[in-house]
Amino acid sequence: MKTLFDKIWDAHVVTTIKDGPTQLYIDRHFCHEVTSPQAFSGLRARGLKVLRPERTTLTADHNIPTVGQDKPISDDTSRFQVETLEKNARDFGLTYYGLNHSKNGIVHVIGPENGYTQPGMTIVCGDSHTSTHGAFGAIAFGIGTSEVEMVLASQCVLQSRPKTMRIHFEGRLAENVGAKDMALYMISKMTTGGATGYFVEYAGEAVRNLTMEQRMTLCNMSIEMGARGGMVAPDEITFAYLKGREYAPKGERWEEALAYWKTLRSDDGARFDKEITFNAAEIRPMITYGTNPGMAIPVDGSIPTLDDIEEAGRGSFRRSLHYMNFAPGEKLVGKPIDYVFLGSCTNGRIEDFRVFANYVKGKRKADNVTAWLVPGSWQVREQIEEEGLDEILREAGFELRQPGCSACLAMNEDKVPAGKYAVSTSNRNFEGRQGPGSRTILAGPLVAAAAAVNGKITAP
Amino acid sequence: MEKFTTITSTCVPLPIENVDTDQIIPARFLKATTREGFGDNLFADWRYDKAGNPKGDFVLNNPTYKGEVLVAGKNFGSGSSREHAAWAIGGYGFRVVVSSFFADIFRHNALNNGILPVAVSEEFLGELFVSVKRNSKATVTVNLQEQTITNNETGKSESFNINAYKKECLLNGLDDIDYLLSNREKIEAFEKQRVYSY
Ligand code: SF4
Asked: What is the rounded average pLDDT of the residues A156-166?
């Protein structure tokens, strides 16, 4: 009787150190420019090669502009960092999708869309939102730069076995509710540290009904409640998504893979260290009001009052509201906003653009709003164009940018100025995340679209 | 990596909960390609004003508090996996972070850089904040071999958890890559015996 997590973990154990961590074999490794340079320097210093170069893929995404990507990056240190990645790819013989490459994009968007990400794999990247790939029924988690070096050198990491948790979303979601709302709802109940030490499997009718894009959104946010990762058992929806993707198995190999993938589910009666159930029908479109993703409420709800907050947490709560310039007990609906960001590895996929375009169709962007619409990859952007969504967006006064992480972490020029409010489809509303002093309100693409059109927080 | 044995030091108190790695080192400082220099930007947005001048009210700018031990509120190091956060803390001169709860990836990253995250009870943490507030010269002693932390003001001691393997690594100044590289045959043997391989 094994959980999905156990099955995949057990199939990747190289050895277990006595009283210590497990040496886990890694099937797929992604690198980006920000968290890898010191790992490659480490290899050079030790005179090492990359052990399995075919298992590592590189992309530039975090520290790049989202306009004028055909020109050299103007910021010197940013350009040097991207050039360093390119040089490392060359020196160590690794596949690299640089700027303007048709496969370039945010690491957690291009992995799945090219078929690199498959059920049953272990997947790591020097980035906490690696949890996204768990949507395919993989063990996928973020690692630090020292661990990036370990994977490059040995194709392994040392990990203590996490505890397992299963979160059920029973019943069906309401019409205008999506995976981002599920995630924010869940984190608001679990708190940002509530799943620390656990690997989470998402289950239940509402999860099984999600598309792959939405499952990725849900798994992506797992890290925001402290989990090592999140996963969904692969099923027909997963297989249909993967079939025909460039790096997915083909022909006989596909049949063989499929037979294996179908075994990847938690056995009936498998034991989890913790089980939690939510009623999907209760979830409404969500929004955050504070400076961590757990501080979320329904869009038309009210910020908690001090009485709702446990004594020990009141200091942090006050501090957070002070930063956001909101008051306890207040409603957010009707508050004017300044920026809207549609994008990131959470909500930068084709479905997110469909939802956004569908809402703004025939309407106009509010004059007081600056909107950054940033596709997660060139392939997403192409599909937007193929489906004619760019036309709809343009007519409504929006403009598409070029792919990258952009305002999700504001390493490039896409920074929200101090004191300004941004309704953002990204994953973190930490102080200064979108630029020093910026105020981030997290939401899904539908709530973001409503804010962009109305210039204020609006229940969709 | 520097060996870690026992440290007795004064503390720098940061009684804030949910300190995420974006606060420890904001993203705009992640453009570097080396591990050096991050200490200067540790907690940059709390520490400096827009013009880059130290803010008097932030603890790192208060000469009263010094030491190799950072004492922080619950849930320290959540958010981004950036190891730069550990480099910033180590680069500034901290060898120990005390909190009642640590985020997973930060804990890993700290240990990989010779920084010891010590998770204590809420009660111990609360008392330590009180001791340091009362007397900025108050010290703690962290004994890795014994896995104990002592508040020398009150004499109260608590034991903390650390994985036995990581403890050995820290005590001997060894890192994981040394270990993994010594294991190459096992890696190859694993690759050969896989039933379904990608
Ligand atoms: S989009 Fe944001 S969260 Fe995702 S990888 Fe980029 S910076 Fe990280």
From this structure: 96
Can you tell me which residue has the tokens 């907690």? B43
Task: For the domain made up of A286-454, give the CATH fold.
Answer: Aconitase; domain 3 (3.30.499)
Residues of A in contact with B16 (CB under 8 A): 315-316, 319
A4-159 fold: Aconitase; domain 3 (3.30.499)
Instruction: Select from A35, A430, A433 the Cβ nearest to the Cβ of B83.
Output: A35
Chain A residue with the nearest C-alpha to that of B108? A144
CA of B77 to the centre of ligand 1 (A): 17
Residues pairing with A168 in the sheet: A203, A277
Task: For chain A, give every residue range classified as CATH 3.30.499.10.
Answer: 4-159, 286-454
* SS3 per residue for A31-47: ECCCCCHHHHHHHHHHC
CB nearest A153 (choices: B20, B32, B177): B177
Inter-chain residue contact B187 with A156, CB threshold 8 Å: yes
Report pLDDT for A311: 87
Q: At what angle do helices A37-46 and A76-92 cross, to 10 degrees?
A: 50
Q: Which residues line ligand 1 (CB under 6 A)?
A: A 61-62, 106-108, 127, 129, 344-345, 405, 408-409, 426-427
Query: Where does CATH 3.40.1060.10 sit in chain A?
Result: 163-282
Check if the beta carbon of residue B39 is closer than 8 Å to that of residue A338.
no
Distance CA A450, CA A441 (A): 13
CA of A221 from ligand 1 middle (Å) equals: 11
∠ CA A110-A116-A122, rounded to 5°? 115
In chain B, which residues have their Cβ closer than 8 Å to the Cβ of A146?
83, 109, 112-113, 175-177
Nearest CB to A23 within list B81, B86, B183: B183
Given a cut of 90, is residue A18 above it in pLDDT? no
Q: What is the tens place of the pLDDT at every residue in A365-382?
A: 999 999 999 999 999 999
B190 contacts in chain A (CB < 8 Å): 14, 25
User: Residue A321 has what pLDDT?
Assistant: 98
- Whether the pLDDT of residue A98 is over 90: the answer is yes
What's the pLDDT band for A247 if we cut at 50, 70, 90? very high
Q: Which residue of A has its CA nearest to B190?
A: A14
The phi and psi torsions of B46 (rounded to 5 degrees) equal -90, -25
- H or E segment at A372? strand A370-373
Over residues A386-401, the pLDDT tens digits come to 999 999 999 999 999 9
Indicate the CATH number of A163-282 among 3.90.660.10, 3.40.30.10, 3.40.1060.10, 3.40.50.1370: 3.40.1060.10
Q: Is the pLDDT of residue A71 over 90?
A: yes
Q: Quick one: pLDDT at residue A129?
A: 98
